[in-house]
Amino acid sequence: MTVFNLNDLHLFVQAVEGGSFTEAGRRLGIPKSTVSKRVAELEKRLGVRLIQRTSRSFALTEIGKDVFDHAQASIIEAEMAESIVRNRLGEPSGTVRLTAAVPTAQFMLAEHLAELTVRYPKLKVSLHVTDRFVDIVQEGFDLALRSHRFPLADSTLVQRRIAVHPFLLVASPDYIAQYGKPERVEDIADHRAVMPSLSDERWRLVSQDGAEAVVAPRPVAAADEPMVLLKAAAAGMGMTILPTSVCNDALKDGRLLRLLPDWTAGSVTTTILMPHRRGQLPSVRAVVEFLAERLAG
């Protein structure tokens, strides 16, 4: 019977998740040659090729994919066993890998990371910030924080909704001083606007009593990135719509003013996603509870 070396399985999983022996070595702080040698030893014991590698490519074989799925599950189970012991002995520890889109990281996560490390000094968070879609299972992440205007597709991932942020109509004090403040929804048509997109030059607004209106301001610019919209509006280019997660600080310090306070332009929901097994780790649960507490809205 073949006896598996859990350390070799761990190196194999790290190599696959990192896409190369070099990246696995960098993550683990060991030489690339060590990773390559141990994976080769694993293949020798199993009597199969797990990874096809050349100077230009690195890809799992068919049987390698099956071994990776089971090896990854075994590593998670081992991490859970270790975390259970650590949890009994004291506070959460280890590394939690988290991914989020750029605006979510900038406006929701960044300011809370210091507090998280103070609360759990033995816990490390590795935050990967990207606007591309991340397959958190295949890429080995513990959590994903996603902000979305429409419901997320059904999947095997555990979903926990933590906040809903309405879009507000805002403008800078300088803009209001120069162009005046709209008193009715119909007044928006006379105002300059910085739009999220020039392909749709209308805003769909809903009042507190459920009334709906479609308005078309006069676009002067467009940007599909919230930080740019925020700064453009604060500089007085025109009014815009922003979720409270993005504009709350600017409203508090007076850089922006809310217009037509009885109306909103939809909302964005923030959800935590996690693989079922990862969500059982005490370290992951600690981060989830912290984010739910700090980001709830």
Question: Can you tag this structure with a few keywords?
Answer:
297 residues, alpha+beta, Arc Repressor Mutant, subunit A, D-Maltodextrin-Binding Protein, domain 2, 3 domains, seven-stranded mixed beta sheet, three-stranded antiparallel beta sheet, 10 helices, elongated
Report on this model:
The chain has 297 residues and is of the alpha+beta class. Helices cover 40% and strands 25% of the residues. The strands form four sheets. Strands 3, 4, 5, 6, 11, 12 and 14 form a seven-stranded mixed sheet that branches. Helix 1 packs across helix 2, helix 1 packs across helix 3 and helix 1 crosses helix 4.
Distance between the termini: 55 Å
Shape summary: elongated
Structural class: alpha+beta
* Largest pleated sheet: 7 strands, mixed
Give the rounded overall mean pLDDT: 88
How many structural domains does the protein architecture include?
Answer: 3
* CATH fold naming of the largest domain: D-Maltodextrin-Binding Protein, domain 2
> Helical region count?
10
- The CATH architecture of the largest domain can be named as 3-Layer(aba) Sandwich
